[in-house]
Amino acid sequence: HPACSPVLQAARGYARPVTRKRKDIPSHLDDLPPTLLKKDYANLPIMNSVDDVVKRLLSLEMASQKEKMKVKTQQLVEKVRRSPNDTGSFEVQGKFKKGRILIRTLEEHLQRHPKDKRNRRCMLMDLDRRRKMLGYLRRVNYSTFENTCKQLDIQYSPPQPYTRRVTKRWLVKKAFCIKVFQEKQKLKAAERLKQRREWQARARAARAQQE
């Protein structure tokens, strides 16, 4: 308003909300065709005779992110499945496929919201869980491990060996713990010796009564 003072006009301009442009981050679900049907309706024979409007309503074009993730999971299962009837192998039952989708989704979410610490923690936990499962599969069946990493586009990095920094405080604490353990073992040895002698005395008394 022209009647306002310059200070008030500056304050109003400062208090105006800032519109930030949202980052256009591509999603890992963009490669799904929109004409593809949802998982619950994909194998129904009646879908061949329904109207085009119904097909569009039941396709991924009108689907939520959760339903798209189900279809993506099914596609990943088909990649790592050993045979058409394979439902019990470790790579099919394991959480590689689901973990990969969740990790990619959390990565995209954290790119838009980098201060979301809770989801960052969940993503790190999922990464650690997947690393342990891949390590087990690597020890048991290396060829299946290589095929799973190749089909699911996973890069496996073995965990780094744990090394403790040796400090004076840690050495004193370790020596104290060892001393306490040794003293406790001595007390247990004396108690066991006392119990053994009592059992021997009872056994001798029982034999003497029988004689």
TrEMBL record:
Its main location: mitochondrion. The keyword Ribosomal protein applies. One of its GO terms (molecular function) is RNA binding. The keyword Transit peptide applies. Pfam families: Ribosomal_S15 (PF00312). SUPFAM superfamilies: S15/NS1 RNA-binding domain. GO terms for cellular component: mitochondrial small ribosomal subunit. Transmembrane segments: none annotated. GO terms for biological process: mitochondrial translation. InterPro entries: Ribosomal_uS15, uS15_NS1_RNA-bd_sf, uS15_ribosomal. Keywords: Mitochondrion, Ribonucleoprotein, Ribosomal protein, Transit peptide. It comes from the Eukaryota. Belongs to the universal ribosomal protein uS15 family. This is Small ribosomal subunit protein uS15m. The lineage of its organism: Eukaryota, Metazoa, Chordata, Craniata, Vertebrata.
